[in-house]
Amino acid sequence: MSEAARPRLRRPTIPARASFGGKNVVMASRGRAPWYTPDGQPVPAYVIGIAGGSSSGKTSVARAICKGLNNIPTVLILSQDAFYKHHTPEEIQQAMNNDFDFDHPDSIDMELFAQCLHDLKQGHATEIPVYSFQEHQRLKEKQYLYGASVIIVEGIMALQAPEMRELYDLKVFVNCDSDLMLARRIRRDTVERGRDVDGILDQYLRFVKSSYDNFVQPSSKYADVIVPGHHNDTAIELLVTHLQRQLDARSLRFRRELVELNSMAPTPNEELSLQLVPQTNQLLAIMTILRNANTKRGEFVFYADRLSTLIVEAALADLPRQPKDITTANGVPFRGVDGDDSNIVGVSILRSGGPFANGLRRVIRDVPLGSILIQSDPKSGEPLLINLKLPLSLHSREQAKTMHVLLLDSQMGTGAAALMAIRVLLDHGVPESSITFLTFLVSRYAVHSVHRAFPSVRIATAAVDDHLDEVRLPIAPGHTLGEVSADGDFGARVVAMQDDVIDFGSDGELETPTGDRLGISLRFSRIERKEKIAWVVKPGMGHIGDRYYLS
């Protein structure tokens, strides 16, 4: 029987600091690159199925593949052990007496296993069961999983069910000598689980060996690759090389493509998705203060908070409301509208979305708030999903279908960060028509971008700026690449420049045209400087996050 400790979710860094406490492991590095096309359509994750006998080395192979993928943002190891079926009291008693066959295919909830894997492969969030081997029972709690570029499924029955095999891009079988598997099992169960050798052998002969002969080993015919259960460094290296090549072919670089696509004529009905706050003299005065480069930080913060409140109120004005009959304080019947905002949540795109949090809380006091940290890769300028903390109501896809989400960011330039944030919400089950993007200003390019990919998403804003230019910004000496990573929608990338410098010294002589001789030396040196290339909205407001929080 393939037993494990209660599954736990870990988020270590690949590869050096990776640690494995359970069999379900999420490994994240510097951020998740776009997993969708410029039209917003998701690119499926790459899925590897690894099968083999108990103690054959399946988990070791999966972990070795993870450690070899240095440049992959997120890798998930999904274990079969989480999907044992719910047991009756009689079955639990059999398990306690070592009389229950956990190595038979019928012990696994393959339908749920395949559904969860299908959701993860399509980029959707899912919740997997949590199984306790101490209680021999599936627990009420579930484990939330989301956001894997590579999914490695491991289990003795990983290749046995056709519905699972259809989801794999690569099928691997770990072949190991039966004597070695038994020796490993005895050592593991005596050392780690405190069992006696007689009990281990009895269980092995009654259940484990027959399962391997009848189900596990025959499934090896479906494998694309057979990997030895020990001394398999060469096989692992070949697998990693193949996987890296497949992932490189799927990689997307589309920020410039967004700008080029968005330079075209507006799409039909595009303005219907844009909600422009009424351009009153009051609003125009606030925008003038915020655009002014000479506005002091305190004044900028005050008017930014004021503007955020106006935009939030404008966005909420068009949300559907149900009629509600009440009795006034004067005892008079009155028909109004329901003010229940319990199905509304806010999600801030950090860090520039922070200014909207105060405005939203002034309108809806107890609104649940989440955050998405999106920054630009300093080498490519592409957006990276760094961190994700969504309200609990969005963890369940069923509940997410009933929610309306206000996405908060200070401005939209290329629309790359907006597309990523919207894609995250769709992956969690939020309907496209239930997403409203709130922003101080938006470029005309970003309006094209969002509407083309997600025509039902509304944008509530105070201004639409017509220009989006790629500019070079100097970087102060001593800054590292990480420190100059921009907010996701600025799309900044870092380039290194080299300047030749002449240093005048006092050694040697140089004759001038008049015959004078000067003591001089010329030393040539090369100084490296760095620049940040970013897409900037014009006339714009500058970097709103920096102006709000720093200066």
UniProtKB/TrEMBL annotation:
One of its GO terms (molecular function) is GTP binding. CDD domains: PRTases_typeI, UMPK. Its cofactor is Mg(2+). Residues 47-229 form the Phosphoribulokinase/uridine kinase domain. Its EC number is 2.7.1.48. Residues 277-478 form the Phosphoribosyltransferase domain. Belongs to the UPRTase family. Belongs to the uridine kinase family. The gene is URK1. Pathway: Pyrimidine metabolism; CTP biosynthesis via salvage pathway; CTP from cytidine: step 1/3; Pyrimidine metabolism; UMP biosynthesis via salvage pathway; UMP from uridine: step 1/1; Pyrimidine metabolism; UMP biosynthesis via salvage pathway; UMP from uracil: step 1/1. This is Uridine kinase. PANTHER family: URIDINE KINASE. NCBIfam families: PRK05480.1, udk. GO terms for biological process: pyrimidine-containing compound salvage. SUPFAM superfamilies: P-loop containing nucleoside triphosphate hydrolases, PRTase-like.
